[in-house]
Amino acid sequence: MLEPDPNYFSSFVCSGEIFELKAELNSDKKEKKKEAVKKVIASMTVGKDVSALFPDVVNCMQTDNLELKKLVYLYLMNYAKSQPDMAIMAVNTFVKDCEDPNPLIRALAVRTMGCIRVDKITEYLCEPLRKCLKDEDPYVRKTAAVCVAKLHDINAQLVEDQGFLDTLKDLISDSNPMVVANAVAALSEIAESHPNSNLMDLNPQTINKLLTALNECTEWGQIFILDCLANYTPRDDRESQSICERVTPRLSHANSAVVLSAVKVLMKFMEMLPKDLDYYGTLLKKLAPPLVTLLSAEPELQYVALRNINLIVQRRPEILKHEMKVFFVKYNDPIYVKLEKLDIMIRLASQANIAQVLAELKEYATEVDVDFVRKAVRAIGRCAIKVEQSAERCVSTLLDLIQTKVNYVVQEAIVVIKDIFRKYPNKYESVIATLCENLDSLDEPEARAAMIWIVGEYAERIDNADELLESFLEGFHDESTQVQLQLLTAIVKLFLKKPTETQELVQQVLSLATQDSDNPDLRDRGYIYWRLLSTDPVAAKEVVLAEKPLISEETDLIEPTLLEELICHIGTLASVYHKPPSAFVEGSRGVQHKRLPGSTGLGESLESPDTGSAAGGSDAPPAVIPSQGDLLGDLLNLDLTPPATTGPPPPPTSGMQLGAMDLLGGGLDSLMGAGFGAAPAASPASFSAPVSGGLDDLFDLGGGVGMPMGAYNPPKTVWLPAMKGKGLEISGTFARRAGIIQMEMTLINKAMSVMTDFAIQFNRNSFGIAPAGPLQVLTPLSPNQTIEVALPLNTVGPVMKMDPLNNLQVAVKNNIDVFYFSCQYPISVLFVEDGKMERQVFLATWKDIPNDNESQFQIKDCHLNSDAASSKLQGSNIFTIAKRTVDGQDMLYQSMKLTNSIWVLAELRVQAGNPTYTVSIPLLLVESESSNVFLFQSQATKGKKGTLI
Amino acid sequence: MIHSLFLINASGDIFLEKHWKSVVSRSVCDYFFEAQERATEPENVPPVIPTPHHYLISVLRHRIYFVAVIQSEVPPLFVIEFLHRVVDTFQDYFGVCTEAAIKDNVVVVYELLEEMLDNGFPLATESNILKELIKPPTILRTMVNTITGSTNVGEQLPTGQLSVVPWRRTGVKYTNNEAYFDVVEEIDAIIDKSGSTITAEIQGVIDACVKLTGMPDLTLSFMNPRLLDDVSFHPCVRFKRWEAERILSFIPPDGNFRLLSYHVSSQNLVAIPVYVKHNITFREGSSQGRFDLTLGPKQTMGKAVESVLVSSQLPRGVLNANLNPSQGAYTFDPVTKLLTWDVGKINPQKLPNLKGTMNLQAGASKPDENPTINIQFKIQQMAISGLKVNRLDMYGEKYKPFKGIKYMTKAGKFQVRTYQHFLMVQTSM
């Protein structure tokens, strides 16, 4: 170099040099001044504090040398905040510069002013900014547009008061595309802090302007405009198509961010296009190449692209179904790219390409990187579960890998084989012997637990299962909780299968778990097993060895409503983290949830009004059992834990007694109470248990004079929202038709894939309700299709007291997963047709009941006369046996009989002109030999008084 | 939008920071350093790192991490693309993008960053426009500035920034008018152990160097445009014309630019220009392994395969290798276990071969990994996809320019998998 370049990095610490700089800054020579400012900037850049020079640097601002001016501006922006009073000194120069004939200087001035984040300065900024927003030069206007966003960040109120937001909105119609793009960018940023301000008022006219500007503005502007377009909801499919047509050229842009934003707009608007449209197919074809191209870019871009492709593949697998090969892993890809590629490979795996995929996965399993190898082995297991035809090849590949004896490969393989066993029971158990050979090499908790599960589950086929499990038991307290729990369950399973030889072992494990352990989970599970085994070994067998629901094909699919939201956020941080934006971005206060347009019913599903609530207290949504995927666990958690869980195990009978007492305490009482307690105010706390469609519905006689007679059937309510059902929404109700109880359901498929293989199961319940036949969904349920199903029920199933009594826990299975929800049936469906008691019997029974066994309820706002009420009730199998009139009051004596042969007698008092009925239920009388209703017998003999007015 | 930028070198020092909004403390980079520590290789640092109040988005180029700090929801690709643009601009201005070059030109760097982003919004990222705003440092200009006292900041509003062709400045003048186009194709492939192609694809670009006076309007047509079904264009290309006629029509930027990049996917047949015969084996119980590798040309349309470089990561258990190359030279790094063989040109009459033994640690068990062979090569005067330019025409100006087209094929990620014969137990699948 001819001129020695001043090395600005030479040490800059001593105050002597600051002093020296001060002198240079105040020099008369322009050149010296500039060099001095440069030195100051250089120190600032590397984080040294040169704020002490503030007044001297600001003095250099009054210059016509553009470079010097820019350098001073740079300095100002950095230090104005720490020297607000000094910064005011600069204001006049800014105001003057905003009037400069050179647009470059005007723009520079307005740009810099906005960056000086000092409150006092902002008020001086308003006038120059207003002028610059209307400047004749578009370069100044576009700079001013961004300045509004800066100012808003400092003082939002000021921006609104000064009307800058409106000016900004006007700029969307500017003739210069760059100005439009910057106005959109500024508005989007402001809108982010005002989620509900409706700043971007998008209508077809503004959309048209944006689309025009889209073609002519810079690549960055295109990103802003595309992201803004994505917020618009077209009026119809034609508008949607025309926007798509104008956006597709962006897919060929060299800037990957433009491409991905365009993909977002297209993915969203595509929802509105009818699938049979030719254009729809064309669009699908156009989407694949740009996505593939993103994968040949730099690894950082690839990563973001892959995270988004993961979403796209879940929503519309057809786009990339032929592109499997581009996701094959190269050995020198960064690990974060490798793992993402692997994930997408599994999503795209199908019968057609499974051979190729497996060959690749096998190759990956011999690579160096441990994390990647583990994921590859796991992937083989996921393929087995996803593509049934390949299961055998997958298992044999896994066995090959186990033969390598590479420790972590073996452990990972055992973990996935456990899942394969659960998916395809009784198919591959022949490999158990091979697995057992590797027992000693397992040192990771997950693998140990998996192996123990296998031994326990298939104890009857493993000759030395007891020895194997016993060997684990020696170091019981050193194992992790996961292994301990699994070991406990496995030994209990073993005991139930081979009780004679293993009694000692089971006692050992139970005492280890209950007496020697501090872990509450372990202790509780130990006690539960203990109590179960000592109370009723048959029941224990049913519970512990119950048939497990098959595990679903894709356990890690993103839940459909979240997926929809993420599709609307393609290209954003949300899409990289697969979480809704509200979940993690700070500063986005109350982000609005975006939803895909179009497809039927999607909009309503969120607010689906619970029309089922005829009277107070019944509009609670159905409680959904958390889908832990393990019905067994859920069963165990149900009602078997009476309050006395601490301390030694209670004697075997106490559980039942407690259950019965519990019932007396609030069970049936609460059922009837909530049913009749039409006025919520009249319900004491114990009745707060929501009873969806209780007896109050029966008496919902309000406008019913002209209503057709027949049983009252509550309207359908949503039992399983699509959010929880991976896209399957179930709403339903119960009805009694021609003597048969029916569960009437509406199934709606809100997911993107076809649903098949429906089945249903009930948990044990108070009245032994069970399906009388299989769930009749014969044709596959395609996306957005709705189907009505009526499932006949009987009451011969196993009985267990539920709380509330009419609670029913249901498991519905389809090809995607098993879903659990609970719902409540109206007790009235249990009233049988022959519930009319002989008059004599009625009178005799009525007399026998002590008066203090009477419960009273009032029903308000019934405008029917007693006859109409009586005939209406008869439709629901509530029979009037006798009628008496005393003092202008009609007394109806009624009987009904439940499916389990419990009689219910009631007295209904109706006073003409008074809309309030009084119901007295003196007794629940039982005439039944059926043993499974003992709970109600005790109810009948003891009764309970509760007068409610 | 982008809040701040930190530049971090390989040893973990922050050597430059720039804030476009309020100042974010350097301590935010601690999260980055944590991730860097966890990563086994420098390139394995994840590109998006969440911290309690910010997000760090980084790219690694020229052994420098460019770490952008963002606070609100911003498209990550937007940030990454912008960071790439910063790297390209530095390289464009200083010839190289190194820590030393950046430190030497720190004021220009600061001026550039200020000009490229305003409050986090990209302002001027086109190299043409930037060069009008801030003149690149050259020895000549430094000298002139010293003598005349003038500055390297442009006094004029960059003309291109507001016109309909923002990528081209006005008033361009050359005495020699010339337009050169380079068609460069990189072939990415994975070849399996038996020599069949698992996947192969071509990443192609057409880079241009156009030095033409005035406002020329060019059209470029191809013999076989149907090859190009997956393309990304420079903004200057008229997309409608391409859709309708498959002709590239554009007013070019001045100087060097990438006109087009394209992708020929695995759906089409991709010719594989080289083949590898390999035999790498370790025997159970023996502390020696055999290594034998031969390269040969294949589907090269008669063109020579040059600048061939073979590299392979040998298993960790290999202590050293004793090999004999028939041509070129090989090195084996006993620490990284990287074997490289600089082959040079492949002579089809006498195929290059590398043969010998590898020594394992005595008593160590046979290695688990399968080495992958990575091959680099160049083939001049050929685009492996078969793409050919038909003609280049110029409209709008009267003079006759000098035109030139050059073709080249390179290996991208070209990998051949091997396997060790003992490892896989054959199964009845």
Automatic annotation (TrEMBL), chain A:
Compositionally biased region (Low complexity): 608-622, 629-644
Region annotated Disordered, chain positions: 587-660
Gene3D superfamilies: 2.60.40.1150, Leucine-rich Repeat Variant, TATA-Binding Protein
Keyword list, A-Z: Acetylation, Membrane, Protein transport, Transport
Name this polypeptide is given: Adaptor related protein complex 1 subunit beta 1
Domain Beta-adaptin appendage C-terminal subdomain: 831-942
GO cellular component: clathrin adaptor complex; cytoplasmic vesicle; endomembrane system
UniProtKB/TrEMBL annotation, chain B:
Protein topology in the membrane: Peripheral membrane protein
PANTHER family named in the record: AP COMPLEX SUBUNIT MU (PTHR10529)
Gene Ontology CC annotation, any one: cytoplasmic vesicle membrane
GO biological process: intracellular protein transport; vesicle-mediated transport
Protein name in the entry: AP-3 complex subunit mu-2
Localization: Golgi apparatus; Cytoplasmic vesicle membrane
Domain MHD intervals: 176-417
Stored Pfam families: Adap_comp_sub, Clat_adaptor_s
Keywords: Cytoplasmic vesicle, Golgi apparatus, Membrane, Protein transport, Transport
Family, per entry: Belongs to the adaptor complexes medium subunit family.
InterPro entries cross-referenced by the UniProt entry: Adaptor_comp_med_subunit (IPR050431), AP2_Mu_C_sf (IPR036168), AP_mu_sigma_su (IPR022775), Clathrin_mu (IPR001392), Clathrin_mu_CS (IPR018240), Longin-like_dom_sf (IPR011012), MHD (IPR028565)
